[in-house]
Design goal:
2 domains; single chain; globular; 5% strand; mainly alpha
Length: 530
Amino acid sequence: MSSKQTLTSRTRFSILILLILIVALGGLLRFYGLTWGDGLFFHPDENNMARAISQLNLNSGFHPDFFAYGQLPLYLVYFSYQLVHGLDLRLVPFKEAIYNLRFWSALFSTLTIPLVYLISRKLLSTSYSLLTAVLVAFMPGLIQAAHFGTTESLLTFFFMLIIYLTLHLGPGPKYRSILMGIVFGLAVGTKVSALYFIAPVIVASLYVARDWKRFIYFWLIFTVFAVLVALLASPYNLVDYESYLSSMRYESAVALGEVKVFYTRQFENSVPLVFQAIRVFPFAVGFITSIFGLFGLLLSLREYRKQFFVILIFSFLFIIAVNSLIFAKWTRFMTPAYPLFAVFTAYALYKLQNKLAVILVLLFTVAQGVLLFQIYTMPDTRIAASTWINENIPDGSYILSETANVVDIPVRNENELTVISFDFYHLDQEEELSDQLINHLEKADYIFVPSRRLFANLPQNAGNYPLLEKYYDALFSGRLGFELIHTQPPYFEPRRSDLLGSFEEIWAEETFTVFDHPTIRVYKKVDVLE
């Protein structure tokens, strides 16, 4: 064997070891802390999915009675649980369903790391492809999604796998189009909104099909397998079509803003793209990575003649456009696009060839990822706040709190506190609530503000909720007769005496904080309300 061949062999081995280490580190950041919440489950979506899983049984034909998501993730958890427990088709306990959902979420998120490395190898050198893998491993939004038992990690993996397959699609064997159809069907079986994953397939087919016959043949094979797999993965979308359609109509109406619900209030008066640029990408992708990613996207536009770049650019812009222009702009909607930020960031750094820029991007991305990860190594803020409440608030105290929390605080009411979960969301719409609020304020010894859901959304909706604005203004200024005596921020923030909260709490899209690390505030009555 020549020295050149030996060097190549050693280099490949070193690259493999580095990639394994990166994936292992990314896996640690995703799998560690999957039991966060101390047996309490604060994410409404994973609660809904776990509830559906816990009801699956043979007698009902494994009917999910739940259609907000596809059946694939539900069946994945159910049958993997049965496999571990002897295939006796027992009911899956709710808690086990939650933890199994999180396991699969973490696994698919971890598998996304080497997949993005392989994608970037079509565009970049080995070292910059490894850099891409590091950025994906430490990306805050991906680490967070991995700790939620929801569909985002699965969808992100399927989207990256579709892109990978399109980058390797050629006029050769038809198995590639079959495989692509299968993956697309699995994505749609996970969540029907994955239909927009068709974007890279469309672009790739235009490059590969050199005549109409090949074009039609490709799409025929792809469509047949995509439809078959989607129906097998989520059969009750067809079997119980009326229930599925009813659910989709409601979910679509909420997403489009046709039905107003309390948890979409933050999107009122929001500007597409601007909202994501300010309140989603800096926190989920990373401040530096989001900037360099957009810069890399602009640089890549010069490569419009190259098939691989066209597929990536079109896929990225399509998913951003689709999810920016709808009313509901939740962080999770953009999750499948996050790895592409890493690819474009690495491309920008590759073109710049500036070591300082590489170090800067790495430091900021790793720091943001580690900070978010440590949320799952510490007691949940609601549990920590509940401990403080049980130790410091007298027995029998009268508490005014806010409604619409998955779990109210204190999570364990050891002091027999009277906790009123008041409906502040409709204070300006229902007149009787004003009188009820005054009555509760007269009785209240303490006020709990369990998250930023209500008060942080008022500035962009100034004038729309005058009574709610007056209430929080009076509370925060002290005119209501209450003073702030305790805050329970995430561990990585100092205990703050100011009322405005942290930059992340105020500016990040609310679901980025309220599910797993909300800041809790406790106010004590010090004066009689006039």
